[in-house]
């Protein structure tokens, strides 16, 4: 069960190369894909690679991976050198619990050569935490915002800045907010113009959308 | 089908007399209750009485009712004179679409002898609309806040004031926010302490809870 | 119940002036807002203004409105002249049933001075309808895609073009697809990078997000 | 991933200092926050800190914490001395299974200097268990009620006492009642005036709301 | 589209003859069934027959029907004479809004020759309304209880009497309780033994279940 | 956290003594209740007592319990001697996977002195399995039917026998049927008269309802 | 808003020509499509064309349509002559309320030249109604089964015949079964092999699937 | 708890012999069934037999089983020899994560003597992966398609080929797509004719439906 057919041409067609979503794959499947890429000398981004799964990969592959357990991402092949990072995208996380998702976005940006500075713990219960960062946030051309629980950050933020906001609901919460749907719905129902949403916990998707926007619109 | 058994003693027991929820009752049922109350010389609050239903009531009863079509409320019997209104409760509505629910709360307060000034159109997309009202809002001991769509107002408000916030989600919205559940969930999932919720569109419930709080705690 | 507090400063702060969402407002509320804007000589966009509601507005206001019944939008004040329209945003509608939402997006763009050519009936059941438009679609820097039913268009489109796709699920469908949630979830769960979503039927939101992106990123 | 930005000023602004919700945080994140607070000599309440997570914290921090495994709460710094506890808030738990949530409320009250006597096992299947406690319950100015399963307690209780009821649904149940939503909806749909709700299992939220009410209204 | 195939033998097999559920049938379909039954000289119960649909039936059929608009039920053929009514089943309705459903149960019982006295307006917000009826209610061998909103009646009632309770949630409510699911779930999640449930608004089903129980168990 | 208040009088009032639902209780809580009952010399039924929890109880209590791991039930005190078992209730299980729930019903019946013969594996895909048991099933006065997946058994069975059917949906299934709701809804929506439902997996509730019916109606 | 792009080639590619789903289209849109087809001399099937919408079409188009109000279908152009109808597909409807959906399937078959005899009112509450039709049903190579409420028909039928069953849930029901989802889930969760499902009320989809099966497999 | 009643006659009646669904069965139950079948010399297919459960079976049974851990299927008794495999059914899997479900289908086909070649990793984000397989896919008379996430494959595939598509949503995804419902709904709501659906992850059901179709229609 290790058949796969990589979409090598995707970067040309859509601007973003294919990545490997590891959550529902077996160690054998991930190892086979990794081996093929190593052999072909291609770079590859792995997402949602939990520590236990990483530990179950062959040592050879593990050695070739730049693995970050906090975000569950791994880079195969050399990342773009930090000094050349393209700027324009900022990441905001409502609370410290939202950092793994924010970091998945930051790492995805880094893999593709984009800077993704994270501004953490700016939940709207204490508005000053947000407003004292406004100056910095307003420098970005696109903001990726990550929030769980009730996600009020998305609306407040979009009402304060000119940049579009890519909202990523995180599955941080309990009771009615247990799976991130409340925060997602808040992003979708937001009265503030300029908020668009990606799937819950999808830091990768927010980052690739931001890159596509920068490439297509900022060209 | 006009049997009913009013809970005359409820005011003594719980502090709030029974009211008549008209939405699922027939005109005949409402008329029968009204006639009995008129005969007994008792005051009564009717809620969710739509204009068409009001028009279908007997002229005699209609004449005895102080009816407000915007909120769908009617008072049978003299309301408490305005000059004696007890203060302490403020009402905030996120948008003009939320005014019917806010007004149901205000009318319920008025029926019971409480002032309920409404501060409208303070949605958080333009934070200045809220912050310029803060001085006024901080004078209240309890705030009833009404908001539909994504309900971010609840969290932002509770992070700015000391008074507890009774959140009433309104069924104003469409798509994922069509029935008020998103705003309700936001109130329940709010990170800000001091937010409590009542049912969607339940201005009556928010008002009676505020009265019970004032009576029980403020005594 | 006609209190309102317009956010005159919003255009400066966020790049998009406030609009009036009419669906849950009474004719009196809409008329009052319109009168105030006419008096102030300000332009204003009204959305989700159904024909019956438009007919219920005062003749004076009606006369000042450029009303489009298909999309339920109205412009108060002169629109930007067509010849100056800013290009870069294209609109794709999966079927003819999706045209009202697509047109809400196009009208919102027009009100703000942006061109929004609509490419209709490119559902993926007949892929040729989409592929024969690819040349044209690839000229746009941002695509707004509208689709109901199962919304497969979002994924297929995003896999074929470089521009980011703002997906608007439309509430076109029945059975499991009755309210647009299936198409919305497809947009959110899409494997294709570069798809972001707004609320169901929210052509206005897609258009304002596209404008914010063009302004912030394309500057 | 240990960035955080505590809202030191929150107590002044809202009457309740910030607490640390531990459920979605890593041990490293909790330890960093704890160390900062110890260094600053500030008191802090930790909630939803499971035993395994507590055991994973550095010994130095563990030693400084007053940890209660039943409720998953920990106090950093000296609690308010018991003799000065402010009275007025009572806690009712429908069954013994609801005690962890009731205890989270009681501990939160204690941390802030409020007494929170718990009256347990008063489910309405045996009404006498509730009625024999009425005398005691009527002494409180606010009641926090915790119930899972079908939550009928909320309505019955609110029909018997004058104090407002803050309803906390607990996630105790199975089948249709598996996640506490039935009890929550019962609280929201209750016919009895004076019932307000917080999120499922949110003993902390009920306690802080009760405190805000006592402070704001009882002042 | 008037084909039908009545299950004439059902009474023998299951104890209950077939009835005609009218809600999704056309007037032509109902008329055809009625004509066939009149011709065959058979009695028949029609349920969920709204007034407008009744008015659309042929005059000949209308004349042969004992129609009750409150419950939407009609009897074709002579009902069992009142004096022979079999006793043992009591009906309880929480509020006056629940009477149409209670009456559907009572009429179904009557059609089959069973008495079904209705005890109305015994909601648990005022427990005395229920307790003062206990003596009467305890005389029945089976209780059909109808309640909407939060349905706390089911649990309280079952905790007070020995008879089994057949709970019928009614679709009386709004917000979270809009469609009767909260009351249904309360019946299903009830801690009190002896509560069984039928579908929302299904007075017919409760009545036929009660009859089957009396016939099968009370024989 | 071991406070409890047993409802010793419940058997007199409702016909069924209180039982201990163990799922959300700690070992300490269960042990305390058990110790109190042993001391008082009272019999007690424990339900949803998983093997791991049973193993965690004090040896003294374990020794006094008649524990059945398949159903998760335990009897404290002597069960009613088998020879005196009251007849009239039959149990039907659609598949072997439904046996734990069926057995919870059978054990609950046994604890109270009722026979509960189980007829297993009569799913309706092979109707002969059901029809060849009809003779036996028709001897019972009440049938408890347990089924997961799509629960078609409830309707087919109720169409074939005169006895009322207490339907217990089991949480056996996957995909759309993962939590037993489909089978529960089938029971509630069944066209066949005489089907009543209890909560998913609630063999205990079905058994106590059957006992209440036999006692109240069969007296 | 009348742009459309018909997929003339679809019949060649997939075996089924495109049809016009009218529910979300305006009269103007339908008229434009109809006019284009008439001009081109092409046959066309219209589905979900309600009587009011049909009445709103231009007389010229109406005259050219073979319209069936029961199923909401219309044929433009000559239907295949009855005598050449291809056999092999049978349609079963559980109740008379399910006939509109069954008839949509039959009309779709007829438009494409296939016979679709309907066998109505074979619900499983009276199994004899189904079993007495078994001989006839077993002659078909594919069965389209339509059922609402609890949909037990799907499982029972599939357990009795060799032909595959295409299950169409109908939105006939109320309470938990109000929108056809229960019947749909029953089809999906059925234990009986050979049951496949299409969308709720989708008689058209069942018919086209049956045709594709006959063409592709029976060739 | 090992009672079972196998439906030996099912193959004759429906064309497919009974299989053993292991997920909710205990090792003892599975072992008892296996022993009975071995004794009777009958072949048997076991599905959803996880590795841990397989390991818990008696060695004697394990030795007689052809077990495939990837799909969780086991054959008892000799499989049909490969050379006689009946052709006509093709399997398509959108991604490598969908292979376990695709393989359950392939193994079910193999057990019954049908070939089931799997074509993997043809997700529609890279359409070329699908179109380059079209030639091969068009040779099959029925296609089983497996896809998770947003399931756009179902619609695109059905728009390109003549064969009917049996869609199996897989529970591969996260956030809004966490349980496979989005992909299932896409299959049901698909605009493309000829798509029918089975339950989520139900490779077995797709395979048996395909076999029934081939046997009944292709005869």
Task: Report on this structure.
Eight copies of one chain form a homooctamer. Chain A has 219 residues and is of the alpha/beta class. The first copy, chain A, folds into two domains: 67 residues; 130 residues, Rossmann fold, CATH 3.40.50. The first copy, chain A, has ten helices and nine strands. A five-stranded parallel beta sheet of chain A has the order 6-5-7-8-9, with helices on both faces. The model of chain A has no long low-confidence stretch (mean pLDDT 90). At the A-C interface, helix 1, helix 9, strand 9 and helix 10 of A face helix 1, helix 9, strand 9 and helix 10 of C.
Low-confidence stretches of chain A: none
Q: Examine the secondary-structure arrangement and name the CATH architecture of the largest domain in chain A.
A: 3-Layer(aba) Sandwich
Strand order of the largest sheet of chain A: 6-5-7-8-9
Give the % helix of chain A.
25-40%
Task: Tell me the count of domains of chain A.
Answer: 2
**Which topology of the largest domain in chain A does CATH recognise?**
Rossmann fold
